[in-house]
Amino acid sequence: YVCSTWGNNHFKTFDGDIYQFPGICEYNFASDCRESYKEFSVHIQRALNSNNHPQIQYILIKIKDVTVYLRPKLAVVDGRIVKTPYYSSGLLIESNDIYTKVYAKLGLILIWNQEDALMVELDSKFNNHTCGLCGDYNGVPIYDEFIKGAESYNSITYGNLQKISKPGDRCEDPDETRALPSCTEHRDECERLLTSPAFADCRLRLNLEMYIQGCMQDKCACGGSQDSFCLCSTISEYSRQCSHAGGRPGEWRTPNFC
């Protein structure tokens, strides 16, 4: 099962909820949250790049007692910069110009495109044991991440709860009253893009509806601008996840699109 974040602050939990959260602090992305010994944690921090697009600045991973800090084109293990491929007990880090990948023998695979998109795949032994922006991984996709007892949260309140407080932090929490309105326009266009012949091999591998929702949110948020990051990032994510699921997406970019 895969949890991912991409593009315009989209998140897809292990259980398949899709939401947006525009925070720029450090957050718990996915961690083992059992009371006793925690096997892993993954924290992320985003910021806006020079084009005003959200980008992941760094990823902080703890695997048992080893700490891995990733930035674009940089891997640091327990405080030392390492060359990749790096291999040590139960941990492999690979990177090239396009991706950084971390494989941990305990049942975690992390793939980052060194820009906006990160995915974490976990072994099913962590079912019901995780917390963070990726949710509880209990197999129930009905936003139970956002319900606690009798209270329900919106996605921004939920995201703010995952913040890792650090002394001297200067990041503002996103305003909870400004949760993004759901978007009902552009369905036909998004459906057409995601069901084009290039994605024929993806249809049965992924839940198409989630990506249609993400694409619609992007179209609404872009407000008609032809900004390719805004319009294309969910389609790139669909293509990436299709490949990851064993599919073979065709060439969907054209000279006039993305």
Automatic annotation (TrEMBL):
InterPro entries, alphabetized: Mucin_vWF_Thrombospondin_sf, VWF/SSPO/ZAN-like_Cys-rich_dom, VWF_type-D
GO annotation, cellular component aspect: extracellular matrix; extracellular space
Keyword Cytoplasm: no
Residue ranges constituting the VWFD domain according to the UniProt record: 1-172
Alphabetical keyword list: Disulfide bond, Glycoprotein
Matching PROSITE patterns: VWFD
UniProt keyword Repeat, yes or no: no
A UniProt-annotated Pfam family: VWD
Full protein name: VWFD domain-containing protein
Protein species of origin: Calypte anna (Anna's hummingbird)
